């Protein structure tokens, strides 16, 4: 049975990392801040990712919950963490859909645990749909304007 807060290792469908997958259950942001032994935390909508910035050195996994399609606050949480230097696993969980997966990857997500399995051919097509990008993000790709105007 999957923990009510964290996700089990078997629910991760896509992972773009070479290190070992974190097997510790994720705790809420409030619980994480109240203890010193947690290494996995789950950000829910309404949580402020900036609360974790002072603790990035001890976090191995951040799960960001997307409870419904229209809730995009997790994109901001991912970018805040990556821009602050977080290098651990950043896992999108919940209502992860193929039409948003490329944008999630560009914001810094490197693992995905969707509620419903994604078709891998559709995922591959989503990642290859746009050869150029318009804005800089945490993925290091050069925006098209910079390619044109150097």
Please give a quick description of this structure:
InterPro entries: UCP030820. The chain is of the alpha/beta class.
SSE blueprint:
Elements (H helix, E strand, L loop, with lengths): L13 E2 L11 E2 H5 L6 E4 L17 E6 L6 H11 L5 E6 L6 H7 L3 E4 L5 H9 L15 H6 L1
Parallel strand pairs: 2-3, 3-4, 4-5, 5-6
Antiparallel strand pairs: 1-6
Radius of gyration: 15 Å
Beta fraction of the residues? 15-25%
Q: Supply the CATH class.
A: Alpha Beta
End-to-end C-alpha gap: 52 Å
Low-pLDDT segments, ≥5 res: 1-9
Order of helices and strands: EEHEEHEHEHH
Q: How many domains would you count in the coordinates? A: 1
The percent range for helix content is: 25-40%
Structural classification: alpha/beta
What is the strand tally? 6
- How many distinct helices? 5
The CATH architecture term is: 3-Layer(aba) Sandwich
Order of strands across the main sheet: 1-6-5-4-3-2
Give the overall shape: globular
* Oligomeric state of this protein: single chain
Largest sheet: 6 strands, mixed
CATH-derived topology: Rossmann fold
Instruction: Report the average pLDDT across residues.
Output: 88
